[in-house]
Amino acid sequence: PMAERMLKFVSVAQSQPDKRPAAERNADFDEIYRAFAVGKAEQQASRCSQCGVPFCSIHCPLGNNIPDWLKMTAEGRLEEAYALSSATNNFPEICGRICPQDRLCEGNCVIEKGFESVTIGAVERFITDTAFASGWVEPIRPPVERQTSIGIIGAGPGGLAAAMQLREQGHQVHVYDRYDRVGGLMIYGIPGFKLEKDIVARRHLYLEESGVRFHLGQNVADADGEGQVSFATLGARHDAVLIATGVYKSRDIGGPGAGLAGIVKALDYLTVSNRLSLGDDVAASESAMLNAKGKSVVVIGGGDTAMDCVRTAIRQGAKSVKCLYRRDRANMPGSIREVKNAEEEGVEFVWLAAPEAFLGDGTVTGVRAVRMKLGLPDASGRQSVEPVEDSSFVLEAGLVIKALGFDPEPLPTLWGQPDLAVSRWGTLRIDHESFMTSLPGVFAAGDIVRGASLVVWAIRDGRDAATQMHRWLENRAAACAQAAE
Ligand code: FAD
Ligand code: SF4
Ligand code: SF4
């Protein structure tokens, strides 16, 4: 009977997998949470009260069937839990690690009131890690192989989720990416201490074994050439195309001294650090410029990217790491859990402060900043910020990292496709039912449609786009057959 196993939140306290102590984790780029000890995941899963209306699932972008896989886990039926969990999520072991659970599933778990929420993310990760270790993760073997060929631009979570779903239907799937590795921001953006690189590499292998063909080091552009392929060529080569290119244009900051050496973009910085972790050769000049070792580091911004930069700088052996954000702690976009992790690791937050000028002669040596104060909420409900008069102060800085967010690249121009419709923010316009762009047979999903978002939303979009692409191809085939009669 259920009562025996579940509802244990009254007697079993919440316990996340152990976090390694800050001194230990600052010395490497490995994940900071250990795996659940044997028996611990089952015990934690048993705290779920099996809600009739599970708010955890409602607030999961994938609508994961959380109460059922928690129950199976509590009962030790892990292979069934894996089957159920992977039916709605292409990468449960990744979401379990890097979803901001406090804002999604766990933040809406109803036993939170009075008792702490079920540790949903950690259990989700445990189920699929166990499945891989036990050999339960079988490559996709579609019941029929179809002749239809699909081109996907972008090997991030959006493109990869779509690739899996389309392979399930037996389509021939080709994924193009300008990077030399599969994973998008999961491989070169998100640092190893949140998501270890071999977790992403394991999925690359799985997708290859499932028959997905990768064309890496191929930049989609406006003309064919060495290391690049034109968008028009892809259109001619495939029956349908999915654009899942993410957003990569860094927002910039001006002001006096903004052009000094030593002021770098967050993604350039994180990519080099990730490449070094992966064992790549990085040019010495580049790795010296983009390395925090021994330097006073100032990171500008308050989102997840800024949190990843400050924590990377600590691990590289920076002299000091300060995070400058113009609003306060309560109004920052980054996850509270990540701010806490950063503080434990030795990062200093300078709230309510914005850069005014960069100091130095050739190379940056300092940042002049000004104090900010919060004003009245604007039309969007967000409090405005304004500088406090005569409040300038100077921070020493040998490396300044700009983490102010990302915008889409101008795809219609870059690809010579003036008819590819974009919004006023530059994101691709799609029909929200069919996922099709303004070009027939061309679909889009992930950050390039939503603007910078989350891995779990890219997976959701990739799945939905794949469903619509399959439907469109089927309808087209049926129409052709009818015309031939
Ligand atoms: P991407 O992951 O960006 O993948 C797009 C791919 O397209 C890339 O591989 C790129 O090389 C390729 N591409 C682009 N243009 C071309 C072209 N012209 N030709 C060929 N290939 C091209 N989300 C979370 O949920 N949790 C987190 O903890 C988290 N941390 C983050 C940390 C950082 C530093 C950053 C930058 C983002 C983080 N995110 C996080 C957000 C998350 O990574 C993205 O929302 C998600 O990866 C978007 O998926 P996507 O498939 O749309 O695009
Ligand atoms: Fe929670 Fe993300 Fe997993 Fe959904 S996918 S259950 S939001 S961790
Ligand atoms: Fe279980 Fe919490 Fe979900 Fe309710 S909201 S089903 S208690 S995990």
Characterization of this structure:
The structure is a single chain. With 485 residues, the chain is α/β, with parallel strands linked by helices. The protein folds into 3 domains: 133 residues, Alpha-helical ferredoxin (Fumarate Reductase Iron-sulfur Protein, Chain B, domain 2, Orthogonal Bundle), CATH 1.10.1060.10; 177 residues, FAD/NAD(P)-binding domain (3-Layer(bba) Sandwich), CATH 3.50.50.60; 155 residues, 3-Layer(bba) Sandwich (FAD/NAD(P)-binding domain), CATH 3.50.50.60. The protein contains 19 helices and 18 strands. The strands form 5 sheets. It has a 5-stranded parallel β-sheet, with helices on both faces. The model has no long low-confidence stretch (mean pLDDT 93). Bound molecules: flavin-adenine dinucleotide and iron/sulfur cluster (SF4) (2 copies). Flavin-adenine dinucleotide binds next to helix 9, strand 2, helix 10, strand 4 and helix 15. It holds the Pfam family Pyr_redox_2. It comes from Gluconacetobacter diazotrophicus (strain ATCC 49037 / DSM 5601 / CCUG 37298 / CIP 103539 / LMG 7603 / PAl5). InterPro entries: DPD_II, FAD/NAD-bd_sf, FAD/NAD-binding_dom, GltD-like, Helical_ferredxn. This is Glutamate synthase [NADPH] small chain.
